[in-house]
Amino acid sequence: MADGKDFLHFIDGRFVASAGGGRFENRSPVDGSLIGHVAEGGGAEVDAAVAAARAALRGPWGGMPVARRVELLYAVADEINRRFDDFLAAEVADTGKPVSLASHIDIPRGAANFKIFADVIKNVPAETFEMATPDGGQALNYSIRVPRGVVAVVCPWNLPLLLMTWKVGPALACGNAVVVKPSEETPGTATLLGEVMNKVGIPKGVYNVVHGFGPGAAGEFLTAHPGVNAITFTGETRTGTAIMKAAAGGVRPVSFELGGKNAGIVFADADFEAAVDGISRAAFANCGQVCLGTERVYVERPIFEKFVGALKARAEGMRPGLPQDQATGIGPLISQEHRAKVLSYYEQARADGATVVTGGGVPQMPPALTGGSWVQPTIWTGLPESSAVIREEIFGPCCHIAPFDSEDEAVQRANDTPYGLCTTVWTSNLSRAHRIAGRIEVGLCWINSWFLRDLRTPFGGSKQSGIGREGGVHSLEFYTELRNVCVKYA
Ligand code: NAD
Ligand code: 6OD
User: Fold this and answer.
1) Which atom of ligand 1 is nearest to the CA of 256?
2) Which domains does the chain possess?
3) pLDDT tens for residues 403-435?
4) Which of 133, 293, 378, 391 is disulfide-compatible with 137, CB 3.0–4.6 A?
5) Ranges in the chain, pLDDT < 70
């Protein structure tokens, strides 16, 4: 990774340290051990990266035919797959997530994100209009899609490679150059991708990475930089608010994938085992650190007790452990800081009178792992809907389960939140499923499924869960601008 365990910036095709030598520690969430040091970027690194990106747009990348860009993006995907184990090791080191999870989701999607958008850009439909001109002649209008220019990509830590490439893939497919600001918690795979870019021949300056922190640091400098033409961001709603203010200077477009407090709704007529399985994944996968996760579960009263018991058994069957161990069912949270936040909600739930069905604390770990950010998968019942545990995004392996008595009640309670990312509904009544899909205030509604992704579909959140949709041709709306060309030919 450029310099042993040091994570350097990747600017203009080269791995570089910070101008002043600043760096910070990267620690393992599994045991707290030191993984390495990360270059801490500031204004100088952001300036250099944006300048490199602008230069790339004026260079070979700017004039490159789409067919060649497509070939290069396919090569990026192939090279990620060829170096699958390196990406897996880097992702697992930074996040502590089980290898079984990262090898099925994070790394394959990291590669797929380049192929899917290469395919999209090959097949962009064109619009043409013939018109009569005032002088009795004729003109043809056609529209072309042009890149925005330099796109800032600001990323979170929960699915680092997957979420970064979900933005970098379409941005490059559309002919932009990018400056990525990975999360300070997860520098590994973004850095490794720099090696891939060089190996396959992506021109220098097209893909740049500046490491560092957010407020008053690399993240803020990047989003406020006048040389940036568009900003795509995944992270907390509060951070999105700050970035939107930065984007206002220069009137730059934003695409935001933000926080959520997603509901799961389980009807008594659902396939019980499938519903338990789906809600268990939605609540506990990736140690609950998935924006699409379900922290509020509403279960129809006749099956409420049985469902709570079955989910409890699932939670208690998830063994925490080393990522490489195939028996590991759940990894640690990303950091001690995040663990303190999650545990504060575990305390709040008790204070608000919750029944703790299972969990609620820190698991007993072997001595070698006690320095990690472990928490128990946790289930509560009995909380009032006004509790902060029900209202606020926790981003941990936990959920509250409440009974409901009617479809109207379930929809009303699911919608009673400032967020609107997704919902997962479990029922065998398809009429009801379609009705709910029309009434639920979210960007993504899963029926008898969860996190089932076709990358051609629009992805994004309603209300405070985001702005815009990405995925398939929808990504073109953000990563390109339409230019109309009017040709008077007669
Ligand atoms: P975060 O908002 O704290 O940080 C995300 C990124 O923003 C980091 O790179 C950080 O350094 C940077 N940042 C922070 N403050 C900034 C500022 N003022 N200016 C510019 N950059 C700044 O989020 P996180 O804790 O890394 O990730 C967890 C959050 O992300 C959760 O809220 C989760 O719901 C959300 N998320 C949403 C989606 C989605 O698709 N909707 C996907 C994944 C994660
Ligand atoms: O699957 C995706 O494309 C996507 N953006 C997933 C987001 C997961 C949130 O943690």
Assistant:
1) 41
2) 2-258+465-488 (3.40.605.10), 262-454 (3.40.309.10)
3) 999 999 999 999 999 999 999 999 999 999 999
4) 133
5) 1-4
